[in-house]
Amino acid sequence: KRTHKAIIEAFITLSERVSFSQMSVQQILDEAPVSRYTFYHHFADKYAVAEEIQAELFANFTEFMEEKVPAIESMPLPSKEHHATMDQMILQYVKVNARKMYAIADIHTDTIDFWKKCSAYVTDSYISAYPHHENVELEAHIYSGIIRGLEEYNFAHPDAFKTLSEDVLLATIRAASHSVGLHDEKKIDQLYHMVEKMIYPS
Q: Helices (DSSP H) in the chain: which residue ranges?
């Protein structure tokens, strides 16, 4: 098990300075360091290493979406405290998974495409939750795009937010308002505060 983890860590470390397309098994062996026999005892090839990293990340993502987010959302907290708690949880999630996300972020094969896999999960979850909605597939597509955009942006700019959840809520309200033709900044701010109070009643 220790050797297995060492190979995965070597892959992750290598990805910080070598693209996946240029990465060779020999480089992984040298980084680990392990013998070629040992590597192939654990993995069929470099793709298998990436697939295992993706599987772990996806398990973390589904746990985050299904357990941690609802747990925070159900807490009877004042708005600012609620935001702060959500921020802490999201930033911790990114911190814990950042290196592994980076290692496979640019791999797009039939079996490895982490962002696409997450998007499909979010889309399916939305459709399952609201099957009675007339335009549920369109809604799911839009919702999935918002979540994926947030994931990718937060991953690429982990220090970009002053107050993560408040910034995301405001950005989402503004973007959605502009997409349907509402451009009046005062009205958009009013809408934001109205939605904020509905989501996080004090």
A: 2-15, 25-31, 36-42, 46-63, 69-73, 79-104, 114-129, 136-156, 164-179, 185-199
